[in-house]
Each structure stands twice: as C-alpha cells, then as structure tokens.
Amino acid sequence: MDNLNAAAALQEMKDRISALSDRIDLDGKKRQLEAMEAQTNAADFWGNPKTAQQTMQQIAKLKAQIDAWDALRARIDDAIELAAFNEESLAEEIDHEVTLLRDQVEHMSLQATLSGPYDSEDAILAIHAGAGGTDSQDWAKMLERMYIRWAEQGGYKVELIEEMDGEEAGIKSATLSIRGAYAYGYLQSEQGVHRLVRLSPFDAANRRHTSFTKVELWPDIQGDINIEVSEKDIRVETYRASGAGGQNVQKNDTAIRIIHIPTGVVVQCQNERSQTQNRERAMQILKARLFEMERKKREEQLAQLKGGTVSAEWGNQIRSYVLHPYHMVNDHRTGLKLGNTDAVLNGDIMPFMEAYLHAKITNSLSLEPEEQGELEA
Fold first, then answer.
1. Phi and psi at residue 329, to the nearest 5°
2. Are 104 and 166 members of one domain?
3. Is the domain of 27 the same as that of 130?
4. CA gap 126, 217 in Å, rounded
C-alpha cells in the first residue's frame, strides 16, 4: 500500500487502541498503580513481609499491563509520523510495520476481552492421566511439556508444585503454577479432557492406542480468599517428593497432601523448601479450588434461574490430537483444526486459545456429538 493508505490504516489502529484503552479503564489502572507505589514508600510497608510481597507482585503485574498498552500506542504514533513523510523509499518499511502492528493490535484486542474478575490472575493448572495406562501417563507428560513450552514462549513464570511419576513412563499427575499477565484468562481454553490417538511406543505390536488426560484450572489468587477451612474437615499426610520438581525439592518427607473430606478434593505440594511452606502453599491451593467450585456453583444456579443452558465444564473431551493415521489437532468446541501437530505439542497453542475466546464472546462454543468421550479414572 502507499504511504497515504498506510497512514489511514495506522490512524484506524490508533483509534481502536484508544477505544480499547477506555474499555479496560487504562487510566484507572494507572491511578491504581500510582496509589500502590505510594504505599511502598510508607515506613511500615515491609512490616508485614507477606502482604508487602503480594503488593509488589500486584504492582509488577499492573505495570506490565500498562507498559504493553503504552508501548503499542507509542509504536503506532512513531509509524504514523514515519508515514507522514510520504517518502517512496520508506514504503516497504512502513508496509512491514503496518503488518506487524495489525497483528499486535489484534492480540491486544483479544486481551481486552479478558474482562472476567479473575482473567488477569495467575493460574494453577493440574494434569491427570486417565484411561490408557502407560500411554495415558506418557500423554500427561507430553501435555505438561506443551504447557511449559507455551508459558516459556509467552514470558510466563512456571513453577512445578507437585508431580507424581508414572509406573513405567510419564506422569500420573502434575500441578503447575503459571504466573504472568492473563495466565488464567488464556488457559481457560484448556480445561477438560484431551484425547491422543497414535501408534503406541509401549506396545510391542505397534498398535494404535487412544489415551485420555484431564486438565483442570483455577485462578491463583494471591490475596486472602474468603473461604474458611476447618481443621476437622481436612486430613493432612506427609510423603517424600518423587517427581523432578526442581532443585528445591527435598528428599525427606516434606511433601504435603491435604484431603478435604466434605468434597473429596485432594491437593498436593512438594516444591517448597520445608514441610511448613508446602502445607501453606497446599492450603492456598485448596482454598482456591473450593473458591472456584463455589463460584461455578453460583453461576450454574444463576443460569438456571435465567433459563439458560449450563455447560458441565466440558467434562467431555475438548480436543483431539491425532498422530496416526494422519496428523491433526481438532478442537471440538470451536471447530479449529491444525495439521502441524509438532508445533502444537511444542507449545504453539495460542490459535486454539484465541479461537476459544472469540467463540466464548459470540456464544458459539459447542461440542461435536460424535467426538464426545469422558475421562475414565
């Protein structure tokens, strides 16, 4: 395109970013950031180290969000200024910048749709091997690697909270903490059962196997959660950490397992340096899970009162990964199909996340009936 058309396209992007900034109340976020930074100057700010650390984390998260929007606006302004020269020698450079900025604006526009009360929070993601024996446990490990790769590519911080090794290969379960802007918002698309079809590397006859793994997700709310957990309602067990877990995993019985008796919810933590720290983190995760269960229960009750239909959190499989007899990853809710399975399993799952968010906004999520199948314990 010529420089005049490029300038028009850039102005349209600027107007769109301005409207989106108003939608997410960017100015309000800046005022909130200023107020929180002012708190850090108080003489007694570090009197409560835990609260101070949470405040610093919130400041860092807010600053990252604000900086991303300001940087995009500044980059568009620079491109508009460049296009105003109307120099033919700059046309190719401007065209390239317009293409890059258009993609970035689309990405930020999608991020602006993440306006739920916890979409901007960190996330706790749990993976559970299901039907399929060793193949399923290997599949669970593959998914764990996929999410770690996605997080690392997106600049998120990943912490392995607990991991239980499989009997022959892979893992039976794993829990990850994924920290960064909108981690929970993006990872919502991953909740449910993931199905793998491939020639089994564990079958001497090299037959095709189908494996299932379940992914669960909760917002990792850093502040105190208004959920009371009575000591009489929990059973606490200690055990020796068995997973890789990182350098901080201790070899003695510091790992903690908490069973919430009324609901049957089980939480494990092994990655902290002491039993006390593992218990504290496990209790935090338990509260997050109970909080999320209660929130979803209220949403379902409200939907029933309104006469709406309620999803069972996609208890049926949400996505199939076929490696034989052809290569295809198929999301059954959005209909998106991608043939580059290697890229997907190496963490390139943003197209599925974006398709999910678009479908959620337009209320077009669905499950293909012929593809439904439940996880077997």
1. -115, 125
2. no
3. no
4. 6
